[in-house]
Design brief:
Layout lengths: L10 H5 L16 E6 L6 H15 L9 E5 L1 H10 L4 H15 L7 H4 L9 H11 L10 E8 L4 E6 L14 H8 L9 E3 L2 E5 L1 H4 L3 H9 L9 E6 L3 E2 L12 H5 L2 H21 L4 E4 L2 E2 L11 H23 L17
Parallel strand pairs: 1-2, 1-7, 2-3, 7-9, 8-10
Antiparallel strand pairs: 3-4, 3-6, 5-6
Helix pairs in contact: 2-4, 2-12, 3-7, 4-6, 6-7
Length: 342
């Protein structure tokens, strides 16, 4: 399912005066554009592939057209990569080269062990992230970023935010690798990330679709008017489930296999609808295609299938992305590092 809304009422577009992505786009005064990247484990390969294909089709750097990037879990890793200067093609290479090693479990007792411990060690993920990000800090991002996590010690949401406001004085010092490990620590799959007294896990437990998180950041702390905002929300594919009728009256056992997926799906759909309500359907483009049930999982996918799907849908939506987002070039982000204040 590709949910999209097309803005056909842009006066500049009707007049034919707005340049395309590949034609040296200029900033449209007053626009503020958000790129929001869903969680989904190894399925983040789809998001990276879509962005890579769009860049190649449109002859542009996608990040140049967005003022704020939000990400959860695998989407948080992609957001970090974009902020630190990696191209979507380089991020896609990260998934194809490192993904199989990150989600590899050689233990003969993995099924039994998974009852008590996380399915995978985060050692391979840490090594892969270090290879890509090195010792760079979160504050070295060249884009405004909001990355989600959850602190189980405080039972509270946890956001990593670049220093795009004078009051944000701490997160920028954190290693990018640690932020990536915190946002992607999916319960039962990867162990939590201890950080400065917090016990952090995957932000997908409360914001697998971080679109509303980004909108809140824009309208609240950044004081952006709702009418100025346009959103590109990129998912990691969904499959349509047949919910058995036993769930209607089910207890613990009938719900055991569906509860987490239902809650995450409901949160994601709710966020998408809320954002459309606030900024208008014509200002939101949601891309999250349907795949056959069971074709993809958080830790197991067919890379050729997912890359093929990304190639197909990106070809279809490329004109829409060009028309909705590429007439705006985001001003250069100047981080407010406390150490650099006069």
């Amino acid at each position: 399912m590709i949910l999209s809304t097309i803005d056909s009422g842009d006066p500049a577009r009707r007049a034919g005066s707005s340049p395309s992505c590949g034609a040296g786009a200029v900033e449209v005064t007053g626009r503020f554009q958000i790129l929001a990247l869903d969680g989904g484990g190894f399925r983040g390969m789809f998001s990276a592939a879509v962005l890579a294909r769009l860049e190649e089709d449109l002859g542009t750097r996608i990040v140049d057209h967005f003022d704020l990037i939000a990400g959860t879990s695998t989407g948080g890793i992609i957001a970090l990569g974009l902020g630190l200067g990696l191209s979507p093609r380089e991020i896609l290479t990260f998934y194809t080269e490192h993904g199989p090693r990150i989600f590899r479990d050689r233990s003969r007792l993995r099924g039994v062990r998974h009852l008590w411990r996380a399915k995978y060690s985060n050692g391979p993920l840490r090594a892969a992230l270090t290879e890509v990000f090195g010792d760079r800090t979160f504050g070295e991002s060249t884009k405004r970023l909001v990355i989600t996590s959850y602190n189980v010690a405080a039972d509270d949401v946890y956001l990593f935010r670049t220093p795009h406001l004078p009051t944000l004085k701490r997160d920028w010092r954190e290693k990018a690798v640690n932020v990536a490990l915190a946002t992607s620590a999916a319960p039962t799959y990867l162990p939590g990330m201890p950080l400065d007294g917090a016990r952090l896990i995957d932000g997908g437990v409360w914001a697998n679709n971080p679109t509303m998180v980004a909108l809140t950041e824009a309208v609240g702390p950044l004081s952006i008017p709702l009418e100025a905002i346009r959103v590109f929300s990129l998912g990691t594919t969904i499959d349509v489930r047949n919910r058995h009728r036993r769930l209607d009256h089910g207890g613990l056992l009938p719900w055991a296999g569906d509860a987490v997926e239902v809650l995450m799906r409901a949160q994601s759909e709710s966020a998408a609808k809320q954002v459309r309500h606030f900024v208008g359907k014509e200002n939101v483009f949601r891309l999250n295609p349907t795949v056959p049930t069971g074709a993809v999982a958080l830790d197991k996918i067919n890379t050729e299938t997912l890359n093929g799907l990304a190639g197909h849908v990106s070809r279809d939506v490329s004109p829409t992305v060009d028309r909705l987002f590429c007439d705006h070039r985001a001003p250069v982000f100047a981080p407010l590092h406390p150490a650099r204040e006069e």
